[in-house]
């Protein structure tokens, strides 16, 4: 019986990271997916596990000495310390390991906050504002700027993938890919227009190649079961492009 229980969400790029790692490594674990629409992360039962009401949370009860770990970066560090880094060559090369960690921290500190900034700005718009073409609305201007920031940041990853679109670092699937792919898949499925963006050709190929990976299909279920697609950014993106061309 597995000693590991993972509390996570199918629609959070943060929460999907540990599940991808565990599936990729073939490590048995108890999966407990919380339903955000029912506010299960705020339930009395879950708040006893994590008083902040956030996922992911990993519980490891090995040897009768349970440890509870929250924050995805801390969980990923714990898992790689316990079971080893993804990618045999990466685990034996300090240089490659440093590159992997550099990309992982860049995603954590720059790309993800930008993406959530865009989501927050978009969510604050009315349906009419999402398709406004005047370019005068301050909330729309803020959302436009947030969108441009995300696309410009994604270009950096597109450049990293120009020589090969399989992996973000080296020649093996690594922590860097685990950090990046859940977000990219969710951005694709909320119709952010990645495929239509000529500056992101390599990134789109990277998504297409890696979405077939079993650990990705198992570890990011919200993309495949429709949970993520209930958010549709396409009217805003279309209006954004028209505003920009005016």
Automatic annotation (TrEMBL):
Transmembrane segment boundaries: none
Highest taxon above the source species: Eukaryota
Residue ranges constituting the GST N-terminal domain according to the UniProt record: 2-87
Ranges of residues in domain GST C-terminal: 93-236
Record-linked Pfam families: GST_C (PF00043), GST_N_2 (PF13409)
Similarity remark: Belongs to the GST superfamily.
Stored PANTHER family: GLUTATHIONE S-TRANSFERASE GSTA, GLUTATHIONE S-TRANSFERASE-RELATED
Protein name per Swiss-Prot or TrEMBL: Glutathione S-transferase
Source organism of the structure: Acrasis kona
């Amino acid at each position: 019986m597995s000693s590991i229980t993972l509390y996570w969400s199918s629609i959070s790029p943060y929460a999907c990271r540990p599940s991808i790692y565990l599936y990729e490594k073939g490590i048995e674990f108890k999966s407990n997916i919380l339903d955000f629409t029912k506010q299960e992360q705020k339930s009395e039962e879950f708040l006893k596990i994590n008083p902040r009401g956030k996922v992911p949370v990993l519980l490891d009860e090995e040897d009768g000495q349970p440890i509870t770990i929250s924050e995805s970066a801390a969980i990923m560090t714990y898992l790689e310390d316990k079971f080893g880094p993804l990618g045999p060559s990466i685990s034996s090369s300090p240089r490659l390991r440093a590159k992997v960690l550099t990309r992982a921290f860049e995603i954590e500190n720059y790309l993800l906050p930008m993406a959530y900034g865009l989501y927050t700005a978009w969510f604050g718009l009315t349906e009419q504002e999402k398709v406004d073409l005047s370019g005068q609305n301050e909330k729309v201007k803020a959302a436009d700027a947030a969108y441009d920031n995300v696309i410009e940041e994604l270009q950096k990853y597109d450049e990293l993938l120009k020589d090969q679109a399989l992996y973000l670092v080296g020649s093996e699937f690594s922590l860097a890919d685990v950090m990046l792919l859940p977000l990219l898949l969710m951005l694709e499925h909320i119709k952010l227009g990645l495929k239509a963006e000529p500056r992101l050709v390599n990134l789109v190929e990277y998504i297409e190649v890696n979405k077939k990976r079993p650990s990705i299909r198992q570890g990011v279920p919200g993309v495949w079961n429709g949970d993520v697609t209930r958010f549709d950014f396409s009217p805003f993106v279309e209006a954004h492009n028209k505003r920009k061309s005016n």
